[in-house]
Amino acid sequence: MTRVGRPAVGAATTIGQACRAVLLTADPREKAMAARAATRAWRGGTLAHRFDVAMPDTPPRPAHPLLVAPRDLPRRKRGGSERTRIAMLHAFAHIEYVAIDLAFDCAGRFGDGLSRDFVDDWLSVGADEAMHFAMLDRRLRTLGSGYGVLPAHGGLWEAAEKTRDDLPARLAVVPMALEARGLDVTPATVERFEANGDARSGRILTRIFTDEIRHVAIGARWFRSCCAITRVEPAKAWQTLLSARFPGLVRPPFNVSARQAAGLTLDYYDTLATPA
Known about the structure:
Elements: H1 15-23, H2 28-43, E1 67-68, H3 82-110, H4 116-142, E2 152-153, H5 158-162, H6 167-195, H7 199-230, H8 234-245, H9 256-261, H10 266-269
Parallel strand pairs: 1-2
Helix pairs in contact: 1-2, 1-3, 2-4, 3-4, 3-6, 4-7, 6-7, 6-8
């Protein structure tokens, strides 16, 4: 892995510095450890609630995995071979790797002027994503592979870049659209793993699915809070932001019960959805 010079989380004295340190950590396993260390330091009261440094617009990435456009990724077969399951787990691991940055960028970029609860929530999300990445990476290793072996989607950070100027837009796109999509597709993926005798991977994905309901709920709650301040109707505001920033992002089929549990009722997405 390529190592990039960066400040250590242990040297941070403010939450802004700690978030920046996580973002500037390129090595995937070190990033996961930095995320958990920053969360422990925040919860332990050793980081001041201050945002005194800027977040990087584009975090450094390791040499592997090779990042490519979605169209250039090899098409994953629907079979249950070990090779296919490794490819699916690798894709999930990459999502969780980028999700660490998305959570810490949200806290560090938008936390100034907001309550400690906002930081609490997004660091808890980031720590979850770090745990998810670690579980998936360990599982890949037991299967004779590991994160970085296969190419990965190079556009996941695009959502952060397009919403770096606006908290409601970030919440609308990342937890309430991209993560919500995970609620739709993960249960069927779990069934495929279990049907092919890989209950261990299925349990990991089920844990991730359960945590992601909470993550989407956190995003939806803070989005409603933003809407209350500006006195706009949340569902309509969400539709407007998605249409402006990421048209066509919301696609069926939907896991209505999981979305409902996360606070995304049908009035948010039903009329906005485009066919898959």
